[in-house]
Design goal:
The protein is α/β, with parallel strands linked by helices. The protein folds into two domains: 147 residues, 3-Layer(aba) Sandwich (Rossmann fold); 121 residues, 2-Layer Sandwich (Dihydrodipicolinate Reductase, domain 2), CATH 3.30.360.10. It is 43% helix and 22% strand. The protein is built from eleven helices and twelve strands. The chain has a six-stranded parallel beta sheet, sandwiched between helices. A six-stranded mixed beta sheet has the order 8-9-10-7-11-12. The longest helix has 21 residues. The chain starts with 14 loop residues before the first strand and ends with a helix.
């Protein structure tokens, strides 16, 4: 069964609120929401009131003193919060009838991710997880093209981030406690899996092993019979940082193209959320997919802990 929603009641565009005020919110979420032609940026709530007020002033929108006040004013809400802060607030937003544009991972525990997904189903709201490679161009088109081909034999993915490089310099995201605790597996692992799964099929088995610092190696078996590997870290030397996916099989060799327009990708993710809300058709990157990614990352975490 599908459910459609009237997001333009009264002739106004859908109102979208933002929860979060950190660097990701300031650099990506808020500018993309402000620039989006098909919706109205309603306002901001943050755990730091002074940062929320500053971000609201920058974009000439309302600052909210509570998440629930923001939910009451909005048709949809976007999250730029740590995953385990995001998940329970998203459950509350769904109960208030708000559609959800979520960051990855949706949670760092399977129970919380499942509760979030079940809340979207129970309350009949749409949810989309912002997985950059699935909305940026040309990467989104590339993933769709490769997924339409048969005969892939294997793939290898890497995401070598320099958030905590060995030289001691730090990116704007280095102050994030959850990234410090969970590392590349949880921060960039969802991106790699979001490409490998639609192209090669559901993951049927997984093995995980540690490298230096927070580097994690995954070996995956897929429903198609293909296998893949992923190497994930936030602690790469700057000179060695980068992102790549290479596929090999009867179609030949295919490599993930470069991309750069992250705010544009976020706008397309919002387009996808609003389309899903209007039609009632779940997007491939919905909360069910977010739950599945959490299950896989939690399995890898459990294997790493057992090996220590």
């Amino acid at each position: 069964m599908t459910i459609s929603y009237d997001l333009n009641s009264g002739g106004r565009p859908p109102r979208v609120g933002l929860l979060g005020t950190g660097p990701w919110a300031a650099r990506t979420h808020a500018p993309a929401l402000a620039a989006h032609a098909g919706s109205e940026f309603a306002g901001v709530w943050g755990r730091r009131p002074e940062a929320a007020a500053e971000l609201a002033r920058t974009h000439d929108v309302k600052v909210y003193d509570s998440p629930d006040a923001l939910f009451a004013d909005c048709d949809a809400v976007a999250f730029a919060l740590p995953p385990d802060v995001q998940a329970p607030l998203a459950v509350r937003a769904a109960a208030a009838g708000c559609h959800l544009l979520l960051d990855k991972p949706v949670a760092t525990g399977v129970a919380a991710a499942r509760e979030l997904h079940e809340a979207t189903v129970r309350h009949g709201v749409a949810g989309v997880v912002f997985l950059t490679l699935r909305f940026a161009e040309p990467t989104a088109g590339w993933v769709a093209e490769q997924a339409a081909l048969d005969g892939w034999f294997t793939a290898r993915a890497h995401w070598f981030g320099a958030v905590f490089p060995p030289d001691g310099t730090r990116s704007p995201y280095a102050a994030s406690p959850w990234r410090q605790e969970k590392g590349g597996l949880w921060d960039v692992g969802p991106h790699a899996l979001s490409v490998l799964i639609p192209v090669l099929g559901e993951v049927t088995s997984l093995s995980a092993a540690r490298g230096p610092a927070d580097l994690v190696h995954l070996v995956l078996r897929h429903a198609s019979g293909a296998s893949s590997t992923a190497a994930l870290t936030l602690s790469a030397p700057r000179e060695a940082s980068g992102v790549g996916v290479e596929l090999r099989g009867t179609p030949g060799i295919a490599s993930l193209p470069d991309w750069s327009d992250v705010p544009g990708a976020y706008g397309r993710a919002l387009d996808a959320l609003l389309e899903s809300a209007r039609t009632g058709v779940p997007h491939p990157c919905d909360t069910g997919f977010g739950l599945r990614l959490t299950e896989l990352l939690a399995e890898a975490d459990a294997q790493l802990a057992a090996a220590e």
